[in-house]
Amino acid sequence: MGRFPEDFLWGGATAANQYEGGYDVGGKGLSTADTMPGGKIRMQVMFSPEFNWQIEPDKYKYPNHFGIDGYHRYKEDIALFAKMGFKCYRLSISWARIFPNGDDLVPNEEGLAYYDAVFDELAKYNIEPIVTISHYEMPLHLVKEYGGWANRKLVAFFERYAQVILDRYHEKVKYWLTFNEINSAFHFPMLSMGLAGDAARDMGTVFQAFHHQFVAAARVVKYAHELDPELLIGCMTLYATSYAADCNPVNVLANEQQKEEMNYFCTDVQARGEYPAYTDRLFKKYGVESLEVEEGDLEVMFENPVDFISFSYYMSFVVNVTDPEAAKAAGNLMDGIRNPFLKASDWGWQIDPLGLRIALNELYNRYELPLIIVENGLGAYDEPDANFVVNDDYRIDYLREHIEAMADAIEDGVELFGYTPWGCIDIVSASTGEMSKRYGFIYVDLDDEGNGTANRYEKKSFDWYKQVIASNGENLK
């Protein structure tokens, strides 16, 4: 027997708002992602009090509008994924492509037909789709008219959207994820909740929006299982392994409480079906008095937990509350204290393969549900030569070490059934809106200003990952 199950799902992952482009074609409405400016100032702009979801072309560039033109070039890309030997492909559906305003009564048939074509193309190569229903975007109208997920009405709008795509695609798609990195709202609620300005800073509003998303997700699980018992619905969380800076009990406790909040809270609710015992402590910490909970909410959450847990893992960080001068390290939508034992990526994210093994054990031992890693990878500056050859040995090293950690976790007893490295083809970065922050096995000829042909070129890591898949994770040289 090999180290990985025979039916292990090797593949890659992208998101509609970073990949597709075509922001104003095919009947698509504007989404929140269409208002996100490009460049390292992206999050700073979105967190400013003045941010109002407007598109200001005289002031900013909007790289998500074009993405990498996957809307028109998906057949070419899927053929490249098939050449690598992908068993699966994680993608997302753009809510605004199906319901342009979000509160429409009738879906956009042109949008539905587009994803039919995508799924049919994947089926041609026997690639299993793993679909995220909401990945860091929603119809812009739902934010401007209703205030995003702070408004209870979004539960019904999301439910209608999810039911339409489940009805349409359930014979083509077995694996579904509800909300991408749902817990990221602790740091950037504008991405997943459509909250900005004062609403984004008010944790009472954030927790109320969490509740609405929990109810909506549970209703989707219920509907999916009633529609087709073979469907599998998972939650998706941002997971960052963390360590206490030392054995000072103050730091140890702070680290444990940080893990409960960031790594476990949302998954506790969606995997166990109820709010955890430490919820009151979180409310007290953030000054949240209570939630508005309607009759039946807690019951539908309890009766419809997820079938599996998916998560992203890029880095780890250290918790140190006893030294306010401790050096900081950047991370995936959040930061922590620098770990002197680890190296960092070009963007300052600390590289920690052993942390992935720890994460897998922590998640599996806590929930005893099947796991899939749906994001992992190295964002780096790739420098192609004149023929667009990219020798990205640094990416190969990163992925090799993380796959080794996955194998070790499986030997530990963890039930891991898949791995989809992030940005398997270069796409627009979610956190910075840059093209220069590249993750892919496939180089896309576009720069941060949108210049280039958008043509695709295989990197050195392309052939390396092809042999990893062909050997089911045995050949990592």
TrEMBL record:
An example of a Pfam family matching this protein is Glyco_hydro_1
Q: Which InterPro entries match?
A: GH (IPR017853), GH_1_N_CS (IPR033132), Glyco_hydro_1 (IPR001360), Glyco_hydro_1_AS (IPR018120)
PROSITE patterns with a match to the protein in the record: GLYCOSYL_HYDROL_F1_1, GLYCOSYL_HYDROL_F1_2
Give the residues annotated as active site. E375 (nucleophile)
| Coiled coil start-end | none
Q: Which Gene3D superfamilies match?
A: Glycosidases
Record's keyword terms, sorted: Glycosidase, Hydrolase
User: Does the entry feature the keyword Hydrolase, yes or no?
Assistant: yes
Q: Which GO terms describe its molecular function?
A: beta-glucosidase activity
Name a single GO cellular component: cytosol
Q: Which GO terms describe its biological process?
A: carbohydrate catabolic process
The record, for PANTHER family, names: 6-PHOSPHO-BETA-GLUCOSIDASE ASCB-RELATED, GLYCOSYL HYDROLASE
Matches recorded under NCBIfam families: PRK09593.1
Q: Which family does it belong to?
A: Belongs to the glycosyl hydrolase 1 family.
The molecule here is called Glycosyl hydrolase family protein
